Amino acid sequence: ICCQLSVSDHTPIPTLTRVPDFNPMYVGETVNLKCEVNLSSGWKYQWYKNGIEQQTTKETNSIKLSLSDRGKYQCRAARGEIISTEFSEEIKQDVLGNQPKPLMTQVPDVKMVYTGESVSFECKVQLSSGWRYQWSKDGKQLPNNNISRFNIRHATSLNNGTYECSAMRDKTMYNTSHKIPVPSLKSVTPWLDVFPGESVKLSCAMAGGADWTFSWFKDKQPVLPHPTTSFDVGAATLSISSASASHGGQYSCLGKLKSRPSVTSTSKIPVPSLKSVTPWLDVFPGESVKLSCAMAGGADWTFSWFKDKQPVLPHSTTSFDVGAATLSIRSASASHGGQYSCLGKLKSRPSVTSTSSPELTLSVYGEDLFFLHMLNAKPRVTLMQNPIHNVMHTEESVSFSCHINVSSGWEYLWLKDRTLLPESGKNHTIESVETKNTGSYQCQAKRGRGAVFSSDQSPAVRLDVKGKIL
C-alpha cells in the first residue's frame, strides 16, 4: 500500500479573525483580517465585503482604512476548480472619519492647588478600546506612560504648568492630543494710544470653538471689574469706558475650557493676616476686644484660634462669628492676656491648612499697677488747672486739661457741679470767666463703640469767680 486517502464528510468552514480587534476604528488606522482553514492545505482565499467579492486572494487581507472600507467582511477558501468551503462568519468593521478627542478631567476640580495637596488627571477616549496614553507637561513628555490616570501627590510649586494627554493605539497608529491653543488678543478699538476719557475695547479669542472663558491681566496682574472696566459674558471682551493714566500697561489674556480646564496652578498656602478690630491691644478688665483673621484670595476659609499656642474655645466671655473669622471677647480679664494667633483651613478641602499667623499680644491691666483703683482696676484721670488760682476774677482766662497716662484711644467728658458740659477734647478753656463759671470741675475718659469703657471721674477742682477788681 503506497498511500492513504482520507475523505471528509463535510465542507470545512474557515475561521475569520481581526487584528487588532477594535471596532470602531478610525480613518488611517490599519486592520488585518485573516482567513484560515485548519484542514488540509493548498487553499486559495476569496474575500467579500457586503456580499461583493474583493480582488485580493491572500490569507491575510491588510486594509489601511478609509470611510469606504466600512462594512461586513466574510471569506471562504477554494482548492482546485470545484472544491469551495462554506462562508466564514461575518465581522463588522465600522470606520469613523473624525479623530477621537481624549477627555481630560481633574480631581479635585479646583482652580488652585496648594502645596501639600494631591491632584489627579484622567484621560479617556470614550469610543472603542485598546488605547494607551502619554502625558506631558509644558510640552515635555512625562515618564509614566500607557496609563489613563496621572497622579500628583504632595504638590509643590514645581508642579505648576499645563498638562496634556495623548491617546494612541498600536505602534503604527496615529495619536491624538487634547492641547490648549494660544489665545488671540486683538484691539477692537483701531488704536492703542488713547487720550483720557476715550473708550477702549480689547478682545480675546480661541481658535477651534466657543467653549472658553477668559481671564485678563495688565502688567501680569489680574484685571478686575471696576466702574470704568467691564467684561462681556465669558470675558471675551474687555471694555474700558473712560481711559485714564492708570489703565496704561501691557495687557494679556488666557483661556480656560468651561468643561475641562487643564491648566494647573500650584500655590503656597497663604499665611493668615491677624488684625485687631479694636484700635488698642492694652485693655482694662471689663473692656471688649475683637480680633480678625483673614486669608488673601477668597472667602472659602474657616479659622482656628490660639492663645499662647493653646486652642481658644468658646466661653461665656469668648465667641466666634461664622467661620471663626472674628474672635470677640465680651469682658476682658487678666486670663485673656497673652499671644494670639490663628490658622486657616479650606472649607471644601480640609487637608489644606495654613501655617499660623504672626502673633498679636493682648495685654490686660491688672491690680498690680499702682495707678489703678484697687477695687475696679479702672485708669485714674488727673485734672489740671492753668493758672492755678482758687479765686479768679471776671474776664480772666483759665484752662483745664485732663490727663490719663495709660493706653490710647480716649475721648473726654467734662462736668461742672456733676452736670455734663457740651465741651469735648482733652482741654477745656474759658477765655473770659464770669461769675456763672463758679463751680466744681471734673473730667472723665471713655473709649469704645457699643460697649463703652469709662474711667472714674477725676477729683474735683474748685473754681471761684469774683467781680473784677477796679
Automatic annotation (TrEMBL):
Domain Ig-like: 14-88, 102-181, 183-264, 272-353, 379-462
High-level lineage: Eukaryota, Metazoa, Chordata, Craniata, Vertebrata
Spans traversing the lipid bilayer: none
Name of the protein in question: Ig-like domain-containing protein
The organism's place on the tree of life at top rank: Eukaryota
PANTHER family: FC RECEPTOR-LIKE PROTEIN 4-RELATED, IMMUNOGLOBULIN FC RECEPTOR
GO molecular function term, any single one: transmembrane signaling receptor activity
Statement: the UniProt record of this protein carries the keyword RNA-binding: no
Source organism (scientific name): Gasterosteus aculeatus aculeatus
An example Gene Ontology biological process: cell surface receptor signaling pathway
Classification via SMART domains: IG (SM00409), IGc2 (SM00408)
Pfam families: Ig_2, Ig_3
InterPro entries from the UniProt entry: Ig-like_dom, Ig-like_dom_sf, Ig-like_fold, Ig_Fc_receptor, Ig_sub, Ig_sub2
Keywords, alphabetical: Disulfide bond, Signal
